[in-house]
């Protein structure tokens, strides 16, 4: 089934998909106009999920959050429940004080988080699913408001579980973790033009060393690697899905010239942009 609410005036879109034989997203093609975040719940057995050409195990009874620009395919889409929503429907940045998910389950580091549901958690998510199904039967003027409430509850549950499973609160209390989240948001916003940690440290009124110490507590990746990983991810996407040259991609990502971009790409991926595109074009 596929249900959705769309407001012609505000362009707000909320969609729920379940028990469907097809569920995928092609951001650089068919779906480019739909800027949707996705919360996907695997209700079946373990299956593969392909995200930007990389294959991951999507474990049974887990939830995974997908970004607007991620292209994905699922091995068994009929076992997936997906909630998809646009910024106009519910802006997680504007409502971060309510849900505290930005810079973590969304707009966070490249690490893929598959969030496990215990029996009680599963019942909560099933209740939200059932309530969403019921609300889609009620075509009234407050339907969108009710869906926003249910979506917010879902995001809060997923964020809380992700923190329990991926964050050590003893070594990284909330105030310190919020700095990391803010850093991730800033990187997502400025990575194409700002490649050095100093810029982000200044925005957060912290020293680069302080940020390095915090990230060591979190995931052992340096703040600089977070920036470089985001640049590499976007470079790969543009090489995968567009006809842009390495020179054009380097320019889009803020590199001074094509040679500088090529050196960066090869140092981080082990291949030149040309080699990478040729190998992946052959595979596809």
UniProtKB/TrEMBL annotation:
Gene Ontology terms, MF aspect? DNA-binding transcription factor activity; sequence-specific DNA binding
Outline the extent of the HTH araC/xylS-type domain. 181-279
Q: PANTHER family per the record?
A: ARAC-FAMILY TRANSCRIPTIONAL REGULATOR, TRANSCRIPTIONAL REGULATORY PROTEIN
Report what the protein is called: AraC family transcriptional regulator
Coiled-coil residue spans:
none
- Spell out the SUPFAM superfamilies in the cross-references: Homeodomain-like
Print the keywords alphabetically.
DNA-binding, Transcription, Transcription regulation
What InterPro entries does the record point to? Homeodomain-like_sf (IPR009057), HTH_AraC (IPR018060)
């Amino acid at each position: 089934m596929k249900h959705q609410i769309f407001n012609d005036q505000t362009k707000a879109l909320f969609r729920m998909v379940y028990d469907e034989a097809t569920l995928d997203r092609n951001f650089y093609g068919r779906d480019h106009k739909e800027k949707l975040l996705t919360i996907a719940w695997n209700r079946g057995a373990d299956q593969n999920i392909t995200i930007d050409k990389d294959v991951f195990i999507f474990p049974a009874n887990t939830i995974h959050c997908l970004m607007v620009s991620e292209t994905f395919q699922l091995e068994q889409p009929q076992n997936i429940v997906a909630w998809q929503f646009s910024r106009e429907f519910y802006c997680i940045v504007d409502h971060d004080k309510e849900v505290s998910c930005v810079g973590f389950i969304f707009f966070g580091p490249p690490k893929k988080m598959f969030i496990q549901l215990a029996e009680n958690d599963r019942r909560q998510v099933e209740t939200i699913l059932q309530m969403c199904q019921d609300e889609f039967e009620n075509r009234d003027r407050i339907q969108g408001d009710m869906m926003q409430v249910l979506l917010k509850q879902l995001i809060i549950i997923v964020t809380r579980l992700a923190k329990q499973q991926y964050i050590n609160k003893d070594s990284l209390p909330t105030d310190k973790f919020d700095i990391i989240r803010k850093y991730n948001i800033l990187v997502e916003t400025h990575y194409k033009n700002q490649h050095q940690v100093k810029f982000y440290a200044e925005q957060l009124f912290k020293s680069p060393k302080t940020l390095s110490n915090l990230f060591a507590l979190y995931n052992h990746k340096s703040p600089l690697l977070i920036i470089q990983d985001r640049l590499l991810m976007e470079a790969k996407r543009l090489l995968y899905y567009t006809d842009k040259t390495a020179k054009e991609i380097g320019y889009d990502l803020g590199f001074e010239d094509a040679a500088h971009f090529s050196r960066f790409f090869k140092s981080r991926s082990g291949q030149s942009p040309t080699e990478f595109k040729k190998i992946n074009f052959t595979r596809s």
